[in-house]
Amino acid sequence: MAAAKHILPELPIDSPERRRLPPLLRRAWYGLNQALRRRIAHLEITPDQFTVLRTLLEHDGITQRELTHLISSDPNTVASLLERMQSAGLVERKTHEKDRRANRLKVQPSGKTKYSAAREIAIELQKQVLSVLPEHKREEFLHDLALVADGCREALAANVRQS
């Protein structure tokens, strides 16, 4: 006999009991970010630096502007982050060969080493976090979460176009 599905009643949008996307996303992001921060602290990199290293390794030779878009950040934050990473010997910024206002980015050997170690930790953390879901639903959840992230980006773009 199949178990009965628990169906939640539809709550009004302004009901305090209703699950809301912003606090749920924030709580999930904050918890994941802090867990990763603690687990990679011994590598002397932050979760944001890990994200930059991963993105640069996945997109060899991109510009600072392209990085800003890919990691969904703002130019000032990325510039400050890259400055610290360059000082730590993790990345190199070189003036773009065709546009002197742009910088091409490259991961240095020490950045690759730290990224590799952090990646193993991040993979284990992801497995731990996703273990709360049935195995057959994990990929579907990640797919749906990507759709939500795309929807957020589209909402931002629509707002920028209206400004």
| Main sheet specs | 2 strands, antiparallel
Low-confidence stretches: none
What is the average per-residue confidence, as pLDDT, rounded to a whole number? 89
What is the percent of helical residues?
55-70%
Written account of the structure:
The protein has six helices and two strands, in the order ααααββαα. The chain has 163 residues and is mostly helical. Strands 1-2 form a two-stranded antiparallel sheet. Helix 1 (21-40) packs across helix 5 and helix 2 crosses helix 5. The protein is globular.
Could you give the topology of this structure?
Layout: H1 21-40, H2 47-58, H3 64-70, H4 75-87, E1 91-95, E2 103-107, H5 109-130, H6 138-162
Antiparallel strand pairs: 1-2
Helix pairs in contact: 1-5, 2-5
Summarize the structure.
This protein is mostly helical and 163 residues long. The chain has helices at residues 21-40, 47-58, 64-70, 75-87, 109-130, 138-162; strands at residues 91-95, 103-107.
Main attributes?
single chain; 163 residues; mainly alpha; two-stranded antiparallel sheet; 6 helices; 61% helix
